[in-house]
Give the backbone structure.
Amino acid sequence: METGTAVVRATAAETGGAYSIVEYTAQPGHARSRHLHRNMVEAFLVLEGEGTFEVGDRVLTAGPGEFIAVARGVPHNVFNRTDTVARWLEIYSPAGFEAYLIEIAEAAAANGGRVPDEVRAAIVARHDIERV
């Protein structure tokens, strides 16, 4: 079941490699796997609804206009624990995270909408995502 969709709003090419921006729409029940980025800072700006963010050992709830920053190397996760859609911007620095989204989308298209676990693991490993 798809629990979210991503739209790339700013690419590495558009920002001179400084950052990428992705607009993410999270359906009710959305959850990611806890992970960290060794070489990338990630931040979230909530636009609509509410997100729950695990950042290190803290759990934060953020609504429209609130900003959550995640430093390099800090384990984190994001959820939509509500019964309504949530939407936020994800900012990645340095830029380039959109390449991960493109690879995942291509793998899903090539495999009937589902990314096989071994394919997903290889893509994740190439894009500074370490599951914890």
